[in-house]
Structure formats: structure tokens, C-alpha cells
Here is the input.
Amino acid sequence: MTFNVLHFVGSFHQGGSDSDFFHRVAQAGEPIWFVPAACARHLIPPSRTARSYLRWTSLKVSAGWAQILLKQGIAAVTGRLLTRVAVILIRDLPSLLRWRLQGKPAATLDTFCSLWFTQGLFRSVWARIRPHSGGSESWRTALNFRSHNGERLDRT
Here is the structure.
């Protein structure tokens, strides 16, 4: 069987293209291989570990997930949104309190990333369902895939 990767390429502008790609490959019945020994190395500039960048990234990733879920239908969207509410109540809020009391800023920031992801998922779904509601265009603009605070992200 010939595998044509172009068949699976999507048109995502706010992230999520990798997740969408692998979801569609799996739906087409093509094998996806996990290689535990594979290693990827990234050079990460300090600006990409800043709180503002991590918030922006969390929101951007959730915008991509919203796009994927909306392609799968309202049941997928509803299920994911309810799951995220449960995650906030059962895991994130208790963890946030614990990490703050224990003085663990990295763990606190990790929990904030999860909360920002949930915020972004709800806002992105709303912006796509009600595109002319207040603020949805500015929401999409704020999640511009190529820049964060004016920094070009396609240059490393």
C-alpha cells in the first residue's frame, strides 16, 4: 500500500495540525509507530519559558484542539468540555493550592498551563460556534500562530 502524506495535510492556522494529522492517519487505518528509543532535542531560548509565552502557547494549543473537536461533532466537543471541567475541579484547583502552599513555582506554573488550556478550549469553541459574538476576532488575532508579543516564531 502506498502512503500519500499529502492526503492527510490539513489547513490549521492556530496550531493543532500535528494532532489532526495523526488522528486522520489513524482513522484511515494506517499504522502509527511509537519508537521509545527515539530522541528529539530542542534548543529553547529563555523567552519561551516565560509565563506569558507558556500562557500564549497553552491557549494556542487549545485553539487547535477546538478545531479538531468541532470536526468530530458536538458530542466530542461536549465530552471534552465536561472532561476539562472535571479536571479543573478534581486535579487543577487542589494542585494549585498545594503547590502554592508548598512554594513550588514550577508546579504552580504547570497547573496554570492546564487552566489556560481549558480557558482557551472554551473560548475557542465559543468563538467558532458564535463567530460574530463579542471579542472572537480579537481572540483569533491574539493567538496568531507566527508571533507572540511581536517575536517571530518561525525563526528559532
The longest strand covers residues 147-148. Strands lie at 147-148, 151-152.
